[in-house]
Structures are given as C-alpha cells and as structure tokens.
Recover the amino acids of this structure.
C-alpha cells in the first residue's frame, strides 16, 4: 500500500508525457502538411501565372491553420475562435467557387451561416472579456 500512491503518480506522469508527445507529433504533422499544401498552391499559382480570389482565400485558410498550431504551441490551448474563422472563410470560398451555379437558397443559407458564426465569435469574445477564465492555465504558467 505504501508504494501504491507512488506507482499511480509515476503512471500518470508517464501517460501525460505520452499524450504531450502525441500532441506535438500531431502539431508537427499538421504544420508540415499545411506547409506542403501552401507550397503546392504557390507552385500552382506561379506556373499558371494566375491568382484568383479563391486561391487567396485558400492561402488565408492555410495561414489560419498555422495560427492555430502556433497558438496551441504557445499557450497549450486552442481558442474555439480559430476554427470559426476558418469556417467563415471556407463558406465564403465555397460561394465564390460555385459562382455560376449558386441558387438563391444556397446564397442565403451561406450568408446566414456566416452571420451566425460571426455572432458566435462575438458572443465568445464578449464572454471572454466579461467572464475571464484562468482555470485552464497550465501549472507551469504559475497561474499568472
């Protein structure tokens, strides 16, 4: 019984190390994949000599993924706003890609989705400023 607490602590520490390593590997794979996709897009634009608005929006999506990876590496957390920004740009890109085939219903639904997501971002930002949470900080931050 004397060693049971120590054994649990060592197992817990080891599992935390494994999870942190898996997170870092996942971030590395995500970052490399995004860099390769961005490089491919740049190569395609350079070879075609043409840059479209959809290409620029796709580039922006890649930059948002990089920002998410960077934020996660810096803070150890991922704000939910980043995926929401990506969703808004993705919907806008979809509308532009389907420019000739969009129905009125698709346009209204897409615009409504973007407005709802934007309202969600505003609500999240308001909640974060009005009711800040310090409970999600990592112990090594020292609680500051």
């Amino acid at each position: 019984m004397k060693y049971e607490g120590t054994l649990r602590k060592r197992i817990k520490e080891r599992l935390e190390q494994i999870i942190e390593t898996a997170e870092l590997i996942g971030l590395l794979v995500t970052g490399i994949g995004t860099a390769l996709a961005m490089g491919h897009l740049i190569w395609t634009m350079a070879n075609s000599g043409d840059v479209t608005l959809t290409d620029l929006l796709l580039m922006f999506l890649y930059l948002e993924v990089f920002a998410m990876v960077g934020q996660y590496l810096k803070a150890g957390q991922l704000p939910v706003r980043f995926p929401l920004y990506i969703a808004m740009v993705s919907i806008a890109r979809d509308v532009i890609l389907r420019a000739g085939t969009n129905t009125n219903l698709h346009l209204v639904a897409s615009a409504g989705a973007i407005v709802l997501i934007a309202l969600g971002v505003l609500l999240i930002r308001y909640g974060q400023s009005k009711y800040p949470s310090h409970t999600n900080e990592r112990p090594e931050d020292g609680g500051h």
About this structure: Residues 137-144 have pLDDT under 50 and may be disordered. The CA atoms of residues 11 and 34 lie 34 Å apart.
